[in-house]
Design goal:
The chain has 5 helices and 2 strands. By secondary structure, it is mainly α. It is globular, with a radius of gyration of 13 Å. The two termini are 20 Å apart.
């Protein structure tokens, strides 16, 4: 079973193909996001990414995110979720301007269609 923290780790490690695959598997196993438990991890980056991803997916599905996500704050340093954003100025600017709110509010930047699964 795919745990949200495994997906968050793949995203943080820049493993785009793995993240897309894990996203598909995650949704095959979880149709209701409200009950996804808070990850038992010490890494604040993984926790913030988990909360951001669940909120992103909840918005796209018209569901409520788990209650615990509301209590996870932003990172101290921004993280671009696409490796190419480090080298490509236009992509970096697109990510800054159009990153989904659930990602941006915690310091993550990605294109607006990041990890779309439909």
């Amino acid at each position: 079973m795919v745990q949200i923290e495994c997906l968050a780790e793949a995203v943080l490690n820049g493993e785009s193909l793995k993240a897309r695959s894990l996203t598909q598997d995650f949704f095959r196993q979880n149709s209701n996001l409200t009950n996804i438990p808070k990850p038992a991890v010490d890494d604040v980056r993984v926790l913030a990414a988990s909360a951001s991803l669940l909120e992103l997916f909840a918005v796209r599905l018209g569901q409520n995110a788990p209650e615990w996500t509301q209590h996870i704050g932003p990172l101290s340093e921004p993280i671009f979720l696409l490796k190419a954003a480090a080298k490509m100025k236009r992509l970096r600017e697109l990510c800054k301007k159009e990153s989904p709110e659930s990602l941006r509010k915690r310091g993550f930047y990605a294109p607006p269609n990041y990890l779309e699964f439909a």
